[in-house]
Amino acid sequence: MGWCLALFALAVLQLSSGAGDYQLPADVTPSHYDVKLAYDLDPATNYSYFGVVDIMLVANKPTSKIVLHAQDYSIVNEKIALKGQNHQYRVMGVHLNDTYNFLTLDLDRPLKEDSIYKLTVPFYGNLQIGLDGVYISSYVNKKSKKTEYLIATQFEATSARKGFPCFDEPIYKSTFSINIGHNKQFTAVSNMPLEASSNENSLEDYWPWEVMRKSFKKDSSDFVWDQFEKSVPMSTYLVAFVVSSFSYVDSPRELSKAKFKIWARDDAIDQTEYAATIGPKVLTYFEKFFDVPFPLPKQDMFAIPDFSAGAMENWGLITYRETALLYDKDQSSFVNKERVAEVIAHELAHQWFGNLVTMKWWSDLWLNEGFATFMASVGTDEVEPSWSARQSHAVSNAMTVLTLDSLESSHPVSVAIDNPSRISEIFDAISYLKGAALIRMMTMFLGEDVFRQALHNYLIKYSYKNAEQDDLWAELTRATQQHGGLTRNVTVKQVMDTWTKQTGYPILTVSRDYGDQSLTISQKRYLSLGTGSTLSSWWVPLSVLCQGEPEPQTVQWLADDEGVDQEYRYEHGAAPDQWLIFNYDMIAPYRVNYDERNWKLLTAGLRRDSGTVPVLARVQLLLATYLQNESEYLPLSTGLGALSKIGHVLKRSPHYGAYQKYVRKLIRKAYEKVGGLAVKEIVNGDDLNSVKLQVLMSDAACAAKLPGAEENAIELFQEWMNYPPGPALDGVLRGREAWVGARVALRPGAPAPRQLGRRARPPAASTSLLAGRLDTVSRSGGRTLRQFWQPSPRRRSATILNHGRRLGTIIKILLDQFTTQKDLDERTPSTWRRLGCQCHKAWRRRASTSRGSSGTRRWSSPSCGSTLRKSSVYSARYHRGQTHPQFHFVKSFRLHGQSNLNDKT
Ligand SMILES: [Zn+2]
Fold first, then answer.
1. Which of 101, 625, 738, 901 would you call most buried, defined as having the most Cβ atoms within 10 angstroms of its Cβ?
2. Residue 899 forms part of a structural domain
């Protein structure tokens, strides 16, 4: 399932171990469900519905109790029936447990072991407008201006029980035959293809029409009953159906064996073309990648107007939030297209990993989600090779993990879940992104061929069954033993347990001996606050690159008992005047700190020619001072992302001006090189990374107030607002591209915001995207603060003190960047004049009165509110030769990754 980042969940995830009374007793096992449902999709009759489920069961032991799940509907106790092969049982008592939604049936005699039974439970209720179970969604039809309604489902993790009584745990795989009665004007779609439609009430035996008519207030001739084919064996959380008046487009038939249809409301059906093309392509590629065919004859994909997650991988019927499936080539941004491809590939990967082979219990959720998140990059890379998706996903996943998992409040990816109500808490960044980083790590230390072979074996062995992480480790180890892969005598389980069962990740401290080409390594858990200690240690794959060496060394290992109590010694190939770098290919989520001389060698090397250090290494280094020589998107994005965290902290301080000036110095070259906003067009519009770079630099230029950037942004935005809609200018300023301009224009006092809606063309159009981006910006700031201030109240005062010191250091070093007063006084009256500020005279007057005074100096522009202030304690005392605080400054940059807060799946 997709998720919206739930940061608070990290802080409250304190799961205790329990006795297992939250799970169903394994006394009986379901093998097949006949689910018959009749819905009246009519607000006037309060969306009433009737249902009956026949469940075929096998008794695993003699028992006179059957326990299953049921929630949110009425059950007619006297209508519940249980039939043996030649005996009708009597149900003596029916109990519903509100905590775990257990429906317990007391029988008049015990079931016989290994015998087959049919349990029948009729029920009825009213659907609610909501986001889980079977729920009502709505939208306004643009043509008729009327509100239209649809029925959608979201059963993961524990809401299938809201749809019908069932054994609602992933371990209970069954086949399903689904029959849906609905108003004739709608179309019903389910996991499997439609088998037959009938005008006869299929629930007649339990709910005669005269009973239903009292609720529906309609004739049976207004309804149709759709029977869907029997499904493959699957878990309840993957069952799905949609009843709607949506339209669909067919994918080109030659792209996949399975028939693909993309469904959306009529107003948005013209935005389905991209999904219709890449969906079947990705599915076909995954069949090849896993060497396991997709078992269903069709794949429907629905854009649902109200949807809680990003998307849900229901087998054969994937449901999406509209913005995760629809793409309008005239109005959506490139970043939106990237998101659509990523989510589609993620959900299609689940068709194998999650649907075909399913976790035994939710504690292995990370394996499902981590795997699908990793495969999203593989699938996207296949259909959009120019995007370098494998590289960019690896960076964004790992950098987010490095930030979140450095908090003491983080949690292991493999986490015990002893209360089903808390399952939703682990649909978080750690499960998805650290999971993906760890899967990628395995592909790298085992080699992709060995990894794929083992994966194939695993998927075949556990098809239509359940497995847990140890089962995958066993297959991977077996493949390794046959084909090689691990360079140390260790099993995949031994390595992976240190990464999946422990919170956090290590920081390696590398100290070179410049006399004999050796170095020592020590490892300990990295905590962003640098406080506390843990006994954790890891099996760390070491990928090392030495300057001048044509080939990197093969992966070596630091075992979980090495570098812990004493430093561990290695030899390397770098000469004393050459740098070496660890984790140059980002093989695993860990940080590295070097001795000062190696840092200096690296910095000097990067300043000379940044291209000599691989991109994935530059991304992690976050050496602020070399950024002015950087021209690639990923390192600039992570570097500026880390800097912006400091910007957030300084924003309300008088030193923010100095920070902005420092950033201006770093970005000026890259901004001018990519064209920035002055060129008034997206320079290389077909190249995703080029577009992202131009947007990144334009945004940074506006934030840092690079002369002319804001003015250009406002100008472009105004042009966009004033011109009639058209591809040319929309191409320049659509979606996220518009955000740069709009971000400026939306500041208090600017005239634009109310006009925004006029150009909106939901759902993929600029306004919704813009809102999303602005939301991201605000949440990003919020997260930075949450991370900055330790969540635990008892540690807060220590934290404030700690960060107060760090903040002081940062400010001091920022001001060190400017050697003279003149250097700092960049905004002269002529600058204000150029920027159109009418208050330069006032500015000049104020500046002249403060000149020569002691204490804090302050210059401000009264009408535009810009302020530049500098405490005299930092006046030109320092000069460039003094470097002592700079080391800490750079170090703090190195140790903080970029945040990535996009909604993910
Ligand atoms: Zn997922």
1. 738
2. no
Please, are residues 382 and 281 in contact by the beta-carbon 8 Å criterion? Answer: yes
Residue 794 within any structural domain of the chain: no
Same domain (yes/no): 517, 660: no
Q: Give the Å distance between the CA of 154 and the centre of ligand 1.
A: 13
Residue with tokens 């019908």: 164
Pairing, β 102-107 against β 556-558: unpaired
Residue 369 assigned to a binding site: yes
Q: Count the helix, strand and coil residues of the chain and give each as a percent rounded to the nearest 5.
A: 40, 20, 35
- Amino acid of residue 424: S
715 is in an annotated binding site: no
pLDDT at position 709 is 86
**What's the pTM value of the predicted model, to 2 decimals?**
0.83
Per the structure, the complete domain to which residue 535 belongs is given by 506-592
Tokens representing 215? 């609720």
pLDDT at 703: 87
SS3 694: helix
- pLDDT tens-digit readout, 282-329: 999 999 999 999 999 999 999 999 888 899 999 999 999 999 999 988
Longest distance between any two alpha carbons in the chain, whole Å: 104
**Is omega for the bond preceding 157 within 30 degrees of 0, making it cis?**
yes
635 alpha carbon – ligand 1 mean position (Å): 28
Domain match, 257 and 241 both: no
> Per the domain annotation, does 109 fall within a domain?
yes
Q: How far apart are CA 413 and CA 401, in angstroms?
A: 11
Spacing of C-alpha 408 from chain mean position: 21
CA distance 302 to 320: 6
Q: Cα(308) to centroid of ligand 1, in Å? A: 13
CA of 371 to the centre of ligand 1 (A): 8
The one-letter code for the residue type at 54 is D
What is the distance between the alpha carbons of residues 411 and 404, in angstroms, rounded to a whole number? 10
User: Which residues are the active-site residues?
Assistant: 347
The radius of gyration of the chain's CA atoms, rounded to the nearest angstrom, is 30
The answer on whether 879 is annotated among ligand-binding residues is no
